[in-house]
Amino acid sequence: MEMQKVIEQAEQNIGQALKDYGRHTGQVGVLDDVSDRFICQLAKDSSWAKQELRKLFSRSPVWDERIDALVINGTRTHNPDYDRIRDLGNEIMEPLIGFGREIDSDKETQILSAIDFFASPDTDTGSKARGVSAINKLAPAAYAPTRRPSRVFRSLCAALGVADETAGSDFQRLYAQFADELSAKRISFKLYVSINPAHFLTMSNPKGDRRGMTLTSCHSFNSTEYRYNSGCIGYARDEVSLIVFTVDGPGSPESLNNRKTTRQVFAYRPGNGLLLQSRMYSTSGGTRGAQADSKLYRDLVQREVSMLEGAPNLWRMYPYGGGHEDTVDTDDGFGGYRDWEYPEFDGKVSIRAGHEGDWEALRVGAPGLCICCGAETESEGWLYCGDGEKGICSECGHDCGNCHDYVGETFPVYNGEGDMVYVCEGCRDRYFTRCGDCEDYYPNGQVRSVEGGYVCSGCLAEGYFCCEECGEYHHDGCRFSVTDGHGEGIEVCGSCRDRCYTQCAGCGGYFHDDTVHMAYGRNGHMIWVCGACLEQYQECPSCGEHVTVGLERGEACPLCGAAFGKEEVPA
Q: 339: which of 19, 168, 280, 543 is 20 to 30 A away, CA to CA?
């Protein structure tokens, strides 16, 4: 595929990956700042940097150019072909047992029995037992029950004098095929060996994934808890890194971007014969208990690379920290976590036969890119959000008026003196509160809780009052004038008015419950009146209640029915 098409495909992959990455998380502060310029620059840089790896991988029948990855699965691997093992063993031993060779017939029988040991399934116990016996006679120090069969065969060849350790010899070529076939194993899963920048960008699942916090790390691109998430970009931009991973549900393209179940970063330069394998990350925490998977992934990558380069699949593996620290170098601007440097993370270095003395150190990682403008920036130039790195260069950043860190975006607030300043999102949400009326932000101490919301002091003075009964602030529309128990006029909220005050049936005003009086109208229904209005009512001499009838005119009391002549009514 021509480079322009590779770059365009990378842009599409990155854009889709970022959409998938943020689909199930609310932690999108970093994702919201990503610009098209960043996507285009990362696609371009990664495509050019990985071109030699792409050229090598594209020779493979399992190369998928749409996702820039090898997809190794059960159709690519197989269980040992014992007939092929037997043929290879016979070819290696041909100098001893070939046609016309003069050799003791008993020794020839033993050699053939030894080959049978390797070319028979483990279920063939008879051949296995005869083979062990023959190997012990031919090369007493070669066999041990716990020793790898390929190593046993190599020691047998050395003892019989057919081993030729010259680089590129027929023996090395045939032995590599023999050992490769002997260790063949069919896998039941898909292993992705990718140089796709989208897969590097989403190498760890998103922080805050609502479906579960699985396989997240300091390299989760949307993380602001740590300072290493620019490492995703650095791996994508170097010439040697490749990401090897499995996913939950490989049938879903989205899972390649946000549901990885295991992943490791490898590093290789075509033709160099030096392979770095960094820490294994998995949904169970990685490293501990993952050695078997880690070894299998390494074997599969070694096998694939050797096949594509037409070289014997013969590698010697070393712990990175065991004297092979000079095999890897990193760019000073790389913002990622160098996990292979820590012994507890089990980083490995493999050197292929024939390259023990001519390999060149791998330069892993590159500087990151500003997610706003796409400019290259060293790790010291990246800006922080809280305690972590957000991936914004100082040119795109802004000075927070509160904490004075440089951040990608600032927000207007009013400080304690009433002046507008600009602060980062973290300071705004921690130290300031939004007024529900004017929608501006003010210091927490200058904003008051009112009726379930928050109101600044300015809006409070203009549109609210303090109820003199409950002491709480309410909107002016809920302001009511009443007369308290001391006869003073005050202002209260509607709730306090209805709870503590009664409306006078005479004047219509509201008076404290302790100061109103009960009276009766002409039809005998009970009413409440204030002290002033009570003077307009008369006390019935018979029942003692206050009524509105004109007793002095001889009208009957509406409650007791008593009627009094005018002359009988007390003065």
A: 19
The dihedral built from the CA positions of residue 385, 389, 391 and 396, taken in this order, carries a sign that is: positive
What phi and psi, each to the nearest 5 degrees, are found at residue 266?
Answer: -105, 165
CA atoms of 280 and 524, how far apart (whole Å):
91
- What is the model's pTM? 0.67
- 3-class secondary-structure state, position 240: coil
- CB proximity list for 103: less than 8 A, separation 6 or greater: 96, 97
Determine the average pLDDT of the residues in 46-62: 97
Please give the Cα distance from 8 to 14 (Å, whole number): 10
The per-residue pLDDT for range 541-552, each reduced to its tens digit, is 888 889 886 666
Residue type, 171: F
Q: What is the mean pLDDT of residues 22-42?
A: 89
Distance of alpha carbon 563 from alpha carbon 566, whole angstroms: 10
Which positions ≥6 away from 181 have C-beta within 8 Å?
Answer: 80, 81, 84, 85, 88
Give the 3-state secondary structure of residue 319. strand
CA-to-CA dists, residue 411 to 181, 225, 403, angstroms: 63, 21, 13
DSSP-H helix ranges across 183-258: 197-201, 231-237, 255-258
| Amino acid present at 370 | C
Identify the CA nearest to 21 among candidates 215, 188, 171, 306. Answer: 215
